[in-house]
Amino acid sequence: MSWIALFGSIIMLFIFFFSYSLTSPASPIIKVQPAMADTILHVLTSPVTYSYIIFVTSVSLSFDLIVKLLQRSLYRTIRDEVVSREFDVKQFNDLYYPLVKVKQIVTKASESALSLVNIQTKQRGYSFAQEDEPAISQSDVVRLYDSRMPKISKNR
């Protein structure tokens, strides 16, 4: 979305500048200084204009890319975890691992600085996960919902 907004604003700037500078100085509707007439030709032939557009575009989009990369690396959501595990490619882990370690170090340092107790976080996951010791084993869940067993009513 930021690509569309950035390039849209650049296009709108050129449309405004083009229409403003090509307006005749004698126009009864829009009064333009004589020095401003045909300025667009000088602007479009200047290399400074094109270098400015390239610089502003690259800085804006790289800032957006860095912010998104840091958000997805340091503050991973469950969706990000699932996507990285689905792809399960070494390059993803090589990219995320150093940033996750930095987050862990910063978190531990801030906890010790505030004299907080390191609270164990509750692990989340799916009940039928086959790796990393699932929270509930599949056999326990099947035993809970065995349809062959008679149902016990609570009214007794």
Automatic annotation (TrEMBL):
TM segment ranges: 50-70
Source organism of the structure: Brugia timori
Protein name: Alkaline shock response membrane anchor protein AmaP
Keywords recorded for this protein, A-Z: Membrane, Transmembrane, Transmembrane helix
Tree of life domain: Eukaryota
